[in-house]
Each structure stands twice: as C-alpha cells, then as structure tokens.
C-alpha cells in the first residue's frame, strides 16, 4: 500500500503486475474533513452500492461512515432518544439508491448503514419499551422524484418499502416533498396514492404515509394532500439572513413568509392559509428545526454566512443548539428578536450575528400548534438539542416544545 500525495487523499495498492488507485477510510475521511473545514454544503457518496455495503471486510459502509459519522462526546446513540417525550420517531438516515444493470434495468435500493452494526434493530426495539410508539422511516434525497416519475419504479419502491417495514415492524414512511417542478410533483401525488392503496392491500391499513414540506412551497394542492396523507409535516424554518435597514446600526432578519404570492405572512397566518386551502388542521404537524444560522457582520453594512463557526454537526453549514448555547454562556452576547411574536430570536456579538431557537421561541410555536388544533409538533432533530445537558437540563428545546403543545391534554 502507498500514497500518491502527502495530504492523505490518494491511496494506491501494488502487487505483482497490478497497480490500483482507490479510496479507503482514511482518504474519504480526509475529504470529509476538507469539506467541513471549507464550509461546503455537504459530501456526496457515488455510489452507495460501490461501498462495502455487505460488510464483507468488516463493518458495512466503512467509506460512507468515514464521511459522515459524528464521534466523541457528541456521538448520538439510539439510547439517547427520550422516548417518554415522543409519540413518533422518524429515522432520517435511510438512503434511496438506483442501480442500473447492464440491461439498463434500474433496481431500487434502500440503504441503511446502521443495519450491519445492529443499530436498526435497536431502533425497532424501542417499541418494546413503549409499545404505542410509532416508528417511521424518511426518504429525503432528490432521487425520490426520479423514482416517482416512472410507474415501474414506483411499484418497485413500494414493494421494497413494504418488505422493509414489515421486517422491522415499522409504522410509516415520510417522503421529502422538494421543489422538483410541476411534472415531478404530479408523479409524487401518484406515488402517495399508490403507497396508501398498496399498504392496505398488503394488510397494513394503519401504516402512515406522510410528507415533509416547506410552509412556503409554491403551487401545492393543499386539499389533495389533506385527502391523501395521514399527516403533513410542515417546516417553517427558512433562511434568516440579516440585513441592515435604513440608518440602522444593527441588522435584523425577516421572520415572515411568502406563500403563493401572498407576502409577509406570520407563522400563524401561513398555517391558516394551508387550513383555508383545504388541508385539515388535524393532519398538520408543525416542524421546528433546532439550528442556529451564523453570519459575520462586515463593513460597510454587509453580512456573510459563516460555514465553519461550529463543529456540531460536522456535515452542515449551520450550528446545533447544543454548541451555540455553550458559546452564549462562555462570552457576552446581546440577545434580541426579529419579530414581535416571540418566534424568531437572534444573538449579536461584536461582528457575529446568529438566528437560532431558544426555549421561549419553540414554546411559542408549540402554543400556536395547540391553539390552531394541529395534529402535533415535530422536533428536527434530537441530536441538535442540548441532549448532553451542557447548558442545563438535557433536551431543553424538546421539553419546551412538547410541554407547550401538550398543555391541551392537561387542560
């Protein structure tokens, strides 16, 4: 074995009359570090079926894991999940792949890198602790639009899902409804319809079909989604990039939404728009994202996103609350709000400005969900909250969100 460089990026192997350039765990791990250090949006493995997905040489998916694993004290484990606070838990690391064989026939793959190390069965085993818990799998990569566009691929995906869900005794699936274009969205409606009918035909009428969609997604048939789906997971977490106003010495961010040509809608107003357009309130679940978006303030009156301000998570251009709360505690920050409703807090320090969530803001979102009669609230994600209790009791955001929504049960 050897290297073609000094940076640990290009390994090779030599034997007899053969010489091979390849990737190993060290080289892809170093590439992942470079992506994180340069603030890139992410890393992309091409392709999943070329990794050791069968675990023939050790643990399955060694290269993919080297790219994405969080290690050390911030490693999040299934045992860290506070199931007492949850009615549903969504596993969001399932990958959808499309393998094309020599005869040009596509083969749908559902790839779970945790399966080989027992993580998947540990996830399924949570129901032995809390039998009423609902366990869902989420497919969030853009390939879903390609699969949905072909009837035979939709059929194959549904067959794979049914087999997978039955094996692990799961309760539903969540699809990411991205901005794929009108034609792709038509195909997604068909996929949802066929999922529901196929689940019933397979003897699983209670399996849930849900989608994750942004609140300001344009051109959606709200009533049709309300009829087809068990729940609609609506996210109101857009970019909150600060701007300087006229003669202002402190920037602020827009915390309002533009939906179908209607501008400057509050969260309450945007949710009401969905309801008025035919999506029943008792099918809407409000998604709250536990991230901080950090920007550098530059003169004269300009702002620049900071992609490497935090180390948690190590695969995204944002900060987890677990790290931001520690930064807030270690130095002086000036706290403020971008709205008058207590939904959009920000923090300012010298030349740094951060939009984030705190206990008050997520609590207010839980109250709105309760007051509007929504089906529930959805924390994204558990490993972004202060799950280690670094700044006080563990899971402060989740507890505030859950507690404010669940007051309707107490009342």
UniProtKB/TrEMBL annotation:
One of its GO terms (molecular function) is chitin binding. Residues 55-408 form the GH18 domain. One of its GO terms (biological process) is chitin catabolic process. InterPro entries: Chitinase_II/V-like_cat, Chitinase_insertion_sf, GH, Glyco_hydro18_cat, Glycosyl_Hydrlase_18. Keywords: Signal. GO terms for cellular component: extracellular region. PROSITE patterns: GH18_2. PANTHER family: CHITINASE, CHITINASE 5. This is GH18 domain-containing protein. It comes from Anopheles melas.
């Amino acid at each position: 074995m050897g290297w073609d460089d000094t940076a640990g990026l290009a390994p090779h192997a030599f034997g007899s009359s053969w010489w091979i350039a390849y990737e190993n765990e060290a080289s892809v791990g170093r590439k992942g570090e470079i992506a994180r250090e340069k603030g890139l949006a992410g890393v992309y493995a091409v392709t999943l079926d070329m990794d050791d997905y069968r675990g023939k040489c050790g643990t399955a998916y060694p290269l993919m894991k080297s790219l994405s694993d969080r290690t050390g004290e911030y490693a999040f484990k299934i045992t860290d999940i506070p199931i007492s606070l949850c009615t549903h838990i969504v596993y969001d690391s399932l990958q959808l792949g499309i393998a094309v064989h020599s005869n040009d026939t596509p083969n749908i793959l559902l790839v779970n890198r945790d399966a080989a190390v027992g993580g998947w069965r540990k996830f399924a085993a949570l129901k032995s602790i809390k039998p009423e818990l609902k366990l869902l799998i989420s497919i969030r990569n853009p390939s879903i639009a390609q699969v949905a566009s072909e009837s035979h691929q939709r059929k194959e995906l549904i067959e794979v899902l049914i087999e997978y869900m039955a094996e692990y005794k799961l309760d539903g699936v969540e699809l990411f409804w991205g901005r794929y274009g009108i034609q792709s969205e038509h195909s997604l409606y068909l996929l949802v319809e066929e999922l529901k009918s196929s689940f019933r035909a397979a003897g699983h009428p209670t399996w849930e079909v849900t989608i994750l969609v942004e609140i300001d997604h344009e051109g959606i048939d709200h009533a049709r989604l309300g009829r087809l789906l068990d729940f609609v997971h609506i996210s109101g977490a857009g970019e909150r990039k600060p701007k300087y106003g006229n003669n202002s010495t402190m920037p602020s961010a827009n915390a309002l939404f533009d939906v179908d040509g209607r501008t400057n809608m509050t969260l309450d107003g945007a949710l009401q728009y969905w309801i008025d357009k035919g999506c029943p309130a008792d099918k809407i679940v409000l998604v709250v994202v536990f991230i901080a978006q950090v920007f550098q303030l530059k003169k004269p009156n300009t702002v620049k996103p900071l992609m490497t301000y935090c180390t948690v998570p190590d695969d995204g251009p944002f900060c987890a609350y677990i790290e931001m709360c520690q930064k807030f505690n270690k130095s002086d920050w000036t706290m403020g709000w971008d709205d008058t409703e207590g939904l959009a807090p920000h923090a300012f320090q010298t030349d740094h400005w951060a939009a984030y969530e705190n206990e008050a803001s997520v609590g207010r979102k839980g109250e709105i969900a309760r007051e509007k009669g929504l089906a529930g609230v959805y924390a994204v994600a558990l490993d972004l909250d202060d799950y280690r209790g670094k700044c006080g009791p563990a899971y402060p955001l989740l507890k505030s969100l859950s507690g404010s929504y669940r007051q309707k049960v107490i009342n």
